[in-house]
Amino acid sequence: MTKRLFALFAFSALAALAADITGNWKATAEGPNGAMERTFTFKQDGAKLTGETVSSMIGKSAIQNGKVEGDAVSFTITADLGGNSMTIKYTGKISGDVIKLQSEAGENKFEWTAKKQ
Length: 117
What we know:
This protein has 117 residues and is mainly beta. The protein is 14% helix and 67% strand. It has an eight-stranded antiparallel beta barrel with strand order 1-2-3-5-6-7-8-9.
């Protein structure tokens, strides 16, 4: 019983330490054809992360499978590229009003810097 209570307390403490990234963020990355931009609208409820993202290349996509654990964030989006559906996985670290993200879709990997707006 004591171990279960300790585990529950530890889990609750970690959830309380998680950064809250709710709001609008503007991200940039360097792509093969120059700078890329994307905006994120995050909605966080505890460790659960939802919202949407918009870019000129892909358009609007819903944030899926999102979670925030401490200073770590991860989520996926499904993008429509010329009629082909592709899952893009994002992982990153939160540091105040900046999130350093890595996106991965197949062999394509990009480093993003997102700033809270």
